[in-house]
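Retro notes
What went well: the complex prediction finally ran end to end.
Inputs used:
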Amino acid sequence: MLELRGIQKRYGGVTALKDGNLSVCPGEVHLLMGENGAGKSTLMKIVAGMVARDGGQMLWQGREVFLRAPAEAARIGIAMVHQESLLAPHLSVAENIYLGREERLPFGWVARRRMLERAARLIREHHFPLQPEWRVGKLSPAGKQLVEICRAIQHGSSLLIFDEPTSSLSGAETEEVFRIVRALRDRGMGVIYITHRLEELRAVGDRVTVLRDGCSISTGPLAEFSTDRLIQDMVGRELVSIYQRESLPPGPELLRVEGLSRAGKLREVSFSLRAGEIVGMAGLIGAGRTELCRAIFGVDPVDAGRIFVEGREVRIRSPREAVAAGIALVTEDRQKTGLALRLPLAQNLTLTNLPSISRFGVLRRGAESRVAADYIARLRIRASSGKQLAGRLSGGNQQKAVIAKWLFRQARIFLFDEPTRGIDVGAKAEVFDVMHELARSGAALLMVSSELPELLQVADRILVMRQGRLTGELPGRTTQEAILRYAALEPENLS
Amino acid sequence: MMQRLLPFLSLIVLFVGLAIASPHFLTDTNLSSVVRQTAVINIMSLGMTVIIIAGGIDLSVGAILAMGGLLGTMAMEKGMSIPAGLLIGILTGLFWGTVNGWLTVKLSINPFIVTLGTLGIARGLALIISNGLPVHRIPPAFSFLGEGNLLGVPFVLWLLVGCALLTHAILEHTRLGRYAFAIGSNAEAAVYAGIPVAFHTTCVYAFGGMLTGLAGMIEASRLMTGQPTAGNGYELQAIAAVVIGGGSLHGGEGSVIGTLIGAFIMGLLSNGSDLLGVSPYLQQAIIGAVIILAVTVDELRKRKLA
């Protein structure tokens, strides 16, 4: 149904696509893979009419088309489900689904009742756990994703593009999205599915195309591709396929949390981190893992509980006090809470510890550029110089920049919340290297992750949370099944 | 780079154009009157630059200016010395700036609303204190501040240069300036980085208020009256100067040199219109159009970069 031949696209001096080839048939899920910057998003934006191509052919149902706007793509039956929510949080589910496509009555009136009914029918048909009148801002990331899907399918599209739909979901919710994708495919729709997660694609894909440096490298039935081959095609070189690290003998206890509680979020959470340790934290979305990090870091107030740093009790009521106690939080959303994207990299790196490079409030610019150069080299941050804007770095390099700024603050306790989210395969290994290096230098690390295989590779031991409680502690060499039992089951059902 | 220089080039083109169009433009009297006229807005805009960089806005500067000028001149009327009066004017500005910053931080309300409120409060209080009447009995020597010359150029030019250098140094070379950029660029990330955001936000508004207090004293000196109604609408001119000079109302962007250029472009437009006999009503429309044009050009530049 869709055929792309030799698609080219340049942004100013940067070539995003050199030779993009892809063909999609009705009733198949076609995986589109590649590292960040490989050109996946650009290729899909061209298909969805969001950007115009500079060269090559796009055939739709055998005829060449040239799309100039998403509305034109929608008209011929192509729709995109976006990765980041492009929803209006203050409007209802139904209003969001039909936003811009409301049925109009005379004098600019909108057929509200009809819209609610149509939304209800659509939601029922697909068995989505939604209500048309719910406010979108109050939905979980998974719920928002479903609204995006509704939006894309409501006007009878025949080709749907999913851009990393599960990157903010976990466990059961991911399964739910897969079920929906498969159901759509079985109705004869074509699906293009962009993903980073190697471990999830077998559950959903039929064929695969790998992009690298703006070119289509390989394509074929998924069954013919081993995971190693996929990684190799994406990265362009052989990679040590699974990251392995050796546990270090744990040192003294750096952080101890006792009975941390917050109404509705955390219940009596107690654990400790030792120097040289990487402790994993597993759980489903909403289990309270992010809330735990925020509570320890002083972002959210707690109702009860005590925190000890190196054996001494500390009172943490704000991130400032947490930072002063030597705690660092590498947040889930580095663009929103980690970096000032419009400021240069160097300024981001030194922000946590300006007093150390200033005298009487006056900055020593020379010291600043030396510090920046030092950390850029140490963490192998790929940037033209410290003057490059943080917003221009790739996801992996942004993550390293966030870590670097905490290193410069000499933090010893690191809370990592989903450290590999949105980072490509090569960069993930580098982030793990940095984490391992931190542990070796005597820091204590807590790593919250929804990617169980990564936790199993990296963590020395794994804590599991469920509904605000710690439900289990497992050794690093455990299995996904064991973790999921603690994460998903009522404690009395655990044998 | 070319487009970054655009505001500067427009200023030069404007300058050369006016020099050709009007024989009265390139005279000492006219040029120093341009400097004197723009100095007040210029100095206010410098403070506004720091506030806007930190992601804030201050709508109350016009009222703060009136309050500063009024209290400063009243002190002199009551027999205090000129420097003491000047100090009182500046401290009045500092006080209101601190109030703005403190309220913004403590109530975590949008500064647009907070300063809209303090605009009304400060203006109302100024009218109550003065009974709505201007202060006239001021020592004649006080006129030196706004009208005097030092080393052949208007004294206010020295003040402006001093304030500009100070503001530039704060923005580029101090912790306060760096934090202002960080808070304006991403306030949440600044909190997570452990920066004392509340304190530095307050400092930023306090600094803006202080410069506004000084501007109020200059205005009072030029008019030789303390007017409770002075500075009406100045806030918009100050904001306009910042955005013409490349400042972003989203925060995180702006510079002293840009703001100075912005303020001088507006000053020249208004001076040139006077010289060329353009109606003052049309002047306002022209300046309005220039604001939109300047910001559009700047947006296009940024979009090209993105």
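What we learned: The first helix of chain B runs from residue 6 to 21.
What to try next: split runs per interface for comparison.
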